[in-house]
Design a protein that fits this description.
- The complex is a heterodimer.
- Chain A is of the alpha/beta class.
- In chain A, 41% of the residues lie in helices and 19% in strands.
- Chain A has 13 helices and 14 strands.
- The two termini of chain A are 37 Å apart.
- The model of chain A is unreliable at 1-5 (pLDDT under 50).
- By secondary structure, chain B is an alpha/beta fold.
- In chain B, strand 6, helix 8 and strand 7 form a beta-alpha-beta unit.
- The chains are: A alpha/beta, B alpha/beta.
- The interface between A and B is medium-sized, with 26 and 31 residues.
Chain lengths: 321, 291
């Protein structure tokens, strides 16, 4: 699909999340949304209008949000706990750890406006730690969809899951990345671009930036593979190893701190398998993040087609040494 | 002998029932001290203070049994003050949720009977121990019960020191907002936390006024008077459309003279000599009760 045509059909993943959830909830009254004064930012106003009995508002009280969600889930409800990613995973971390994951109540934790979606609002509203902390909590699946297709499939899969899951959504429209008929499976990455010179392994909205990099590199005769690693945990280790072995160089990309996210997860897989290839983690450094639009901030840290293409060229030079 | 809405406890049997419950509380105290001593770990003072509450809940109030532990209509008990799990273990064992001999493994390597409640144990609804979690979970379970019109009740036991966690007050607001009259919070008001008196660490009073201001219907009770506990816990909801709060005035270390009101027994483990003294005191109380 061409870029212009693609953008015509693009929606924010957050919109697709709310539409998919509403469609599911219309036919299953056990599906509930619990939210902390976030129905507007979570695009849940249509849900609240259509199914007022299936949305529970707890006010600005994230710890309570997650605890109540666990209590509802314990009684058989299919609960989506929706709150800005930064607050959901920092303010309620102990509730996520104990009430949801340790107690194994299958709450679907939904971090909205994650990463730097709230870019201009500053570091309080940036969620760049969530993948690291949730990766470290046993019994939590972590899914970061890239495009609308992945989002719809992830929401449907989450509704069926019998253990805790964290979903992470941004606000910017996402162009489609996958061909019709693609199968989405939690825990299995999706191939977005074929290539064998090097591999990008990206997650969430950065997959689009990496796809742009692949296109730039292709103009130079460089074939870059791109995997959408929508499930950060459990990681598709087989695809990571295969990418390193077949491409000989790997760049991971994430809208998250370089500490503890997708990149370090992939590095651990490679190191422990004894696979050593030129490798870069592209994400946010361990410093106060600049503010601005999501795209400007990401580009500042090299998460843009141009920035990622440049990192790829550097890495290819190392590979050739 | 649950006090469901349909059931009224026979007045004629009150005295006999009170005696039975009183004896059970002493026996529970003897047993939990034994397991704490064997494990060389446990929260002695807080377990002793909530024994009578648990006794009345499980023997007179809660509509739950080992056979109905998975029944969607069962009453739920959530021990938010998870530290006092030893009291819960002996009461659950006594009610047949698991063989009491299992408790020989308390706090041992890989034993499921860890020092805080976990759902691995039949009859335990929620993993607790970190404080300030039980009330939100209970409110969620109560909300689901209302939605499904299942008629079950949810009881949450809170420690008084635990109330400094702000999450409790978030949950109190939500429970009142949704009119969860199927939810009852019981505060084990023993006045002590690990550092000292609650009023010195972070003052709670007036607790009744606080719950009332948050939209709850509140009653106070002597938390060691089994008849008073029975009457108040069988009377919930105190008001239709409001969650109920029971401030149960208790004594940390209740039943063992040298443990009572002494913060060192928060998680103190008795020496052999202290254990013998404690058991002798409790056995004497048992003999007294039988006279």
């Amino acid at each position: 699909m061409s870029g212009a045509a693609a953008m015509e059909t693009a929606k924010a993943n957050l919109d697709v999340f709310s539409e998919t959830l509403l469609a599911l909830a219309r036919s299953n009254r056990n599906i509930l949304v619990v939210t902390s004064d976030s129905r507007g930012s979570g695009r849940l106003v249509p849900f609240a209008k259509a199914l007022p009995e299936q949305i529970i508002e707890v006010g600005i009280a994230e710890q309570n949000l997650v605890g109540i969600a666990a209590g509802l889930a314990s009684a058989g409800k299919i609960v989506f706990a929706v709150s800005p990613g930064s607050f959901l995973t920092a303010r309620s971390l102990e509730q996520i750890k104990n009430d949801v994951c340790y107690s194994d109540h299958p709450v679907k934790l939904v971090g909205i406006s994650s990463g730097v979606s709230y870019g201009a609002l500053g570091s309080t509203h940036h969620s760049l730690h969530d993948l690291a902390v949730l990766r470290a909590i046993p019994n939590c699946t972590v899914v970061v969809p890239a495009d609308n297709f992945e989002t719809a499939e992830a929401v449907k899969a989450a509704a069926e899951m019998t253990h805790p899951v964290f979903l992470r959504f941004g606000k910017r429209p996402m162009p489609p990345l996958h061909r019709p008929g693609t199968t989405f499976t939690v825990g299995k990455s999706l191939l977005v671009r074929e290539g064998n010179d090097l591999a990008f392994i990206a997650t969430g909205e950065t997959v689009v930036q990496a796809a742009g990099a692949c296109d730039l590199l292709a103009q130079e005769g460089i074939s870059a593979r791109l995997l959408s690693m929508h499930t950060v945990k459990p990681l598709d280790e087989e695809a990571v190893l295969q990418a390193a072995q077949e491409c000989g160089a790997v760049i991971t990309v994430e809208e998250h701190s370089c500490a503890g996210g997708l990149g370090e997860a992939c590095a651990a897989v490679l190191m422990q398998a004894g696979v050593s290839v030129p490798f870069r983690i592209v994400g946010f450094p361990d410093e106060e993040t600049v503010s601005g639009s999501q795209l400007d901030i990401m580009a500042y840290y090299g998460i843009s087609p141009e920035g990622l293409a440049e990192t790829a060229r550097t890495l290819l030079n190392r590979k050739r040494l | 002998m649950p006090c469901s809405k349909q059931r009224t406890i026979e007045k004629a049997n009150d005295a006999a029932l009170d005696l039975l419950l009183h004896r059970k509380s002493i026996e529970y105290r003897i047993r939990l001290l034994g397991y704490i001593r064997k494990a060389q770990a446990g929260h002695t003072g807080g377990s002793l203070s909530c024994v009578d509450i648990l006794n009345v809940l499980y023997n007179c109030v809660l509509n739950v049994s080992p056979e109905t532990a998975d029944d969607p209509r069962r009453d739920r008990y959530i021990q938010s003050k998870g530290h006092s799990v030893e009291a819960l273990y002996v009461v659950l064992a006594d009610r047949g949720f698991f063989p009491e001999s299992d408790l020989e493994t308390l706090c041992r390597f890989r034993s499921p009977y860890v020092g805080h409640p976990t759902r691995k144990i039949r009859g335990i609804e929620h993993n607790t121990g970190a404080l300030g979690h039980g009330l939100a979970f209970g409110a969620g379970a109560a909300l689901a019960g209302k939605m499904d019109r299942l008629g079950y009740r949810v009881f949450v036991l809170l420690g008084d020191g635990e109330l400094a966690e702000g999450s409790n007050w978030e949950s109190m607001m939500t429970a009142a907002h949704y009119g969860l009259d199927n939810l009852t919070a019981i505060v084990d008001r023993n006045q002590l936390q690990i550092t000292g008196r609650t009023e010195e660490v972070c003052a709670l009073e007036s607790l009744v006024d606080k719950f009332t201001a948050f939209g709850w219907s509140v009653r106070e009770v002597d938390g060691h008077n089994v008849r008073a506990l029975r009457e108040v816990l069988c009377a919930v909801p105190f008001e239709v459309g409001r969650p109920s709060a029971v401030i149960a005035h208790t004594v940390k270390g209740k039943g063992v003279s040298f443990m009572e009101h002494d913060v060192k027994w928060h998680h103190g483990v008795p020496s052999d000599e202290e254990y013998q003294r404690a058991i002798e005191e409790l056995r004497a109380q048992l003999e007294e009760a039988e006279r």
